[in-house]
Amino acid sequence: MIGHFLATLTPEQEDRILTGTMKGYSLPPTVGEMLDPAHFCLVQRADGQRLRAKVVRWPRFLVWGCDSAMMRYDDLYAKYGDRINVMIRNRILRNRLWRTLKNTSGQLAQVAP
User: Fold this and answer.
1) What interhelical angle do 69-80 and 83-111 show, nearest 10?
2) Lowest CB count within 10 Å: 32, 39, 82, 91, which one?
3) Which of 19-23, 30-34, 82-86 tops mean pLDDT?
4) For the residues of 39-57, what is the DSSP string, one character each?
């Protein structure tokens, strides 16, 4: 699920996630959590938002019992802690590598004897 969200990010949004801190919210989130810039969730960090006003909805999330990337991230953070952030950052780096190789594969084929 999170992978589908990560695949739609712009390079600028990816940079925000790679360089910033992220934490999951307790449910329901406290006011202190929502106002603390060091406590951004995955979607807030990507969008650069202070409050959780924007909810990213995906039809597949509804089928899987979760209606947003935010809620799914909160659940995964509660289960895995900061390890989920490492996994997300690794996925972003892998996506970037894949895009780079995809763009250069045609050039390499033309240069090779």
Assistant:
1) 110
2) 32
3) 82-86
4) G--HHHHHHT-SSTT----
Instruction: Please state, in angstroms and rounded to a whole number, the distance separating the CA atoms of residues 58 and 67.
Output: 7
Q: Is 17 left (phi over 0), alpha (psi -120 to 50) or beta?
A: alpha
pLDDT tens per residue across span 26-50: 666 666 666 676 777 787 788 776 5
The encoded tokens of residue 55 equal 């909810």
CB neighbours of 106 closer than 8 A, spacing ≥ 6? none
Terminal-to-terminal C-alpha distance of the chain: 42
User: CB-based contacts of 88: which residues, under 8 Å, 6+ apart?
Assistant: 2, 6, 17, 22, 42
The band of 73, judged by pLDDT with boundaries at 50, 70 and 90, is confident
Using 50, 70 and 90 to split pLDDT, how confident is the model at 105?
Answer: low
